[in-house]
Amino acid sequence: METILNAFHIKVNKCCASCKHKECMADGTRFCSQMMIKVEQTYECQQWQMSDGLMNAGLQTGGVVRLNGTAEEIIK
Predict the structure, then answer these.
(1) Tens-place pLDDT, residues 13-69
(2) What does the radius of gyration of the chain's CA atoms come to, in whole angstroms?
(3) Contact at 8 Å (CB) between 66 and 75?
(4) Staple partner for 58: which of 8, 27, 48, 74, CB 3.0–4.6 Å?
(5) Strands (DSSP E) along the chain, which ranges?
(6) In angstroms, rounded to a whole number, what is the distance separating the alpha carbons of residues 43 and 65?
């Protein structure tokens, strides 16, 4: 599995689990919205793009975290 760095020098594994196009189904399986197929966590394809959350990982000023069923929390 290939590892790349984001803008803040945090290592990110290049796989389905870190992809912008990943969606989780109700039964817990991963679905690629770009390729329209079910995928495994370690699957890697040519259309991979880093998710927005991982792009901002390591940002010194904090970030916004959205928890299921709750309001947004700002982490500083």
Answers:
(1) 898 888 888 888 888 888 888 888 888 888 888 888 988 888 878 766 555 555 555
(2) 14
(3) no
(4) 8
(5) 3-5, 11-13, 22-24, 30-32, 37-39, 63-66, 72-75
(6) 26
